[in-house]
Amino acid sequence: MSSFYKLGQMPIGLTVPAFAILLVVFGIPTVLLFLISLNAPDFSVTNYYAFFTQPANVRVLFQTIEVSLVATGICLIVGYPTAYLIVTASKSLRITLIALVIIPYLTSGLARTYAWIVILGDRGVINNLLLGLGLIQSPLPLIYNRMAVYIGMVHIMLPLMILPLVSAMMGIDRSFVAAARSMGAGPFTAFRRVFFPLSLPGVRSGSLLVFVFCLGFYITPAALGGLRDAMLSTFIAAQVKSSFDMSRIATAAFILLAVAIIVLSMVGLDLSGTQGRAANPVRKSWLARLSIIRNLKLYLSELPRPYRAKRWAAQLYQAGTASRWPQIIGRVFVVLVMVYLLFPGLIVVVMSFSAGAFLEFPPSGLSLQWYRSFFGDASWNGAAWTSVQIGVEVAILSTIVGTLAAFGLSRMGPGSRSFLTMIIITPITFPVIVVGIATYLGLIELGLIGSQTGIILAHSIGAIGIVVVIVSATLANFDRTLVQAAKSMRAGPLQTFMRVTLPLIRPGLIGGAVFAFLQSFDEAVITSLVGGLSVRTLPLKMLENMRNQIDPTIAAVASLLMLLPLLWIIVFYVLWWKSKAKAQNTLPAPAA
C-alpha cells in the first residue's frame, strides 16, 4: 500500500490511469494492427503491394488526399480573413462573433450533415425555392456529388480552422504593425511583412487539424457524396461490414495513418500558438534556397523602393482619407460566413415545426407532431437515453483520469510534458476510422464488443485527451504559491485540493467534462464499429434514418441537438458571471 501511495505522489504516477486505458484500449491494439498488416510473424509487405497494385484502391487514396487538401484550403481561405476581422473588431462584438463560431462547433456533426441533405436535396430548400420562382423546370443535382461533399465538410471543419487562428492572432502585439506603418509601410505591406508571419502558428495548427480530421471523414462524404466520391475511410468501413478481412483493413488503415503522420512530421503541430514561437523565422522552402531565385526576389523587392519612399514623403503630412469600402466589405464577408455557419441549423429548426406529412420550407403550418413523435417513440427515447448514459459515464471517467494526468504533466519538465501530452492526445489527432479499427481490435481481446462498457472505454480514450488539454491550459495560469501557503498552515493534501486547488480550476474541470460529454454524445464512427447491433445510440439511430430518409422525426432530433450548445453556453456564462462576482466580492474595500 505504501508503494502505491508513493507512486501517487510522483508526477508520473498521476498519469498511470490515463496511460493504462490508452495502452490497453488503443496502444497495444494499434501495434497488433500494424503487425497484422505485415503478416506477422512472416513479416512481408504483400498486403501493401496488393493494395497499391489495384488501381481502384490507389484512386480512392489519392481522392481522399485531394478532398482533404481542397477542403483544408477552402477552410483556410475563408477562415483566415474571418479570424482577422473577428480579432480586429471591438471587444463586445468579438465575443459575440466567437460565440457564433463556437455554437456550430459544439453542434452535432450528424445534425449539420442532415441540415445540408435537407437544403441540397432534390426537394430541398434551394430546389423548392427555384422551382417556386419558376427559374428551373426540374431539380438541380445539388447533392450526391463532390461539391456537396465540400460544402458539408467545410461547414463542419470551418470553426476548427477559425478558433486556432483567433487564438494565435489574439497573441500578436499590435505595436509591431503600428511600428511598420510608422516607417512608411502601407496597410497591405505591414500585414504581409509583419502580421501574417506572426500568425503562421495558427495557420499551421488549424490547417493540420482540419486536414487530419478530413482524412478520417466517413459520414459526411457518404451522406452527401456519390459513388465516385468515396473516401478511404468509407472503403475501410465497407470492408468491416462485408468481408472483414483484417489484413486488408489493417493495411488500408495504416496507409491512411501514414499520410497523416507524414504531414504531421513535415509541418509539425503547434497547439500553443504563443507569440514567442510565432516570432521564429519560418522554415524556407527548397525553392527559396536557390541562389538565383533568392537574388531575383531581392532585386524585384528593391525596384519599388524609390516609389515607396517618394509616396511616404508625399503622404506624410496629408490628412487621412481612408476609404470605408474595406470595412463594408469586411462586415459583409463576416455576415456571409456567419450565415453559412448558422443558417443550415436555423432551416432545420424551422422545418421541424412543419405540420405537413413531409418536411417543407417554409412550413405550410406549425405543429409539434415531429417532437411528439420523438418523445413518444420508444426506439428514439431508448437511443437518446443510452447516449446520455454513455456520455455521462464517459465524462466522469475522463474528467477524473484526465485531471490526474494533467496534474502529473504540469509537475514535469517541459520536454517530458510535451512528449507525454502528445501521446495522450494521439487518439484525437489520428483519423477517426483508424482509431475505431484499433479500438475494435482491443475490445475484441477484452470481450467487450457490443457492450456499453466497451463503448465507454472507446469514447474515453479521446475524451481523456480533451480533458488533459483543457485542464492543462487552466493549470498553466495556476498560482502554486497558494498551495504552498495552504500547506504551510498545516492543511493536508486532500484539504488543500478541496479548499484551494479545486475552486481555482473548477472552470477547466467543467469545460473538460462538457466537451467530453459532447464528444461521446455525438460519436458515431467508433460506436458503429464497437457497438455491434446490441447497443443503439442516438447518433446511430440518426445515421440509420439519414440513409433511409423516410422519418421526418430526425428533423426534431437535429433541432434539439442544435439547441444543446446554446444551453451549454448559457451554463458557462452563468458560471463565469458567478465566479467574477465572487472574485469582486472578495476584493478588499478601499480605505476611506
Describe this structure in words.
The protein has helices at residues 2-9, 11-14, 16-37, 46-52, 55-87, 91-106, 109-120, 125-132, 146-170, 174-182, 187-198, 200-215, 219-224, 232-241, 246-267, 275-278, 291-302, 305-315, 325-351, 369-376, 378-410, 414-424, 426-429, 432-446, 452-476, 481-488, 493-521, 525-530, 538-548, 553-585. With 592 residues, it is an all-alpha fold. It is globular. The N and C termini lie far apart (57 Å).
Quick rundown:
This protein has 592 residues and is mainly α.
Layout of helices and strands:
Elements: H1 2-9, H2 11-14, H3 16-37, H4 46-52, H5 55-87, H6 91-106, H7 109-120, H8 125-132, H9 146-170, H10 174-182, H11 187-198, H12 200-215, H13 219-224, H14 232-241, H15 246-267, H16 275-278, H17 291-302, H18 305-315, H19 325-351, H20 369-376, H21 378-410, H22 414-424, H23 426-429, H24 432-446, H25 452-476, H26 481-488, H27 493-521, H28 525-530, H29 538-548, H30 553-585
Helix pairs in contact: 3-15, 3-24, 3-25, 5-9, 5-12, 5-19, 6-9, 6-19, 6-30, 7-9, 7-19, 7-30, 9-12, 10-11, 12-15, 14-15, 19-30, 20-30, 21-25, 21-27, 21-29, 25-27, 26-27
Descriptive tags:
mainly alpha, 592 residues, disordered C terminus, 76% helix, globular, disordered N terminus
Secondary-structure element order, N to C = HHHHHHHHHHHHHHHHHHHHHHHHHHHHHH
Strand proportion, as a percent range, falls in under 5%
Number-wise, the strands total: 0
Question: Based on helices, strands and strand pairing, what is the structural class?
Answer: mainly alpha
Roughly how many Å apart are the termini?
57 Å
Overall mean pLDDT stands at 78
Largest sheet: none
What is the tally of helical segments? 30
What is the radius of gyration? 27 Å
Helix amount, in percent?
over 70%
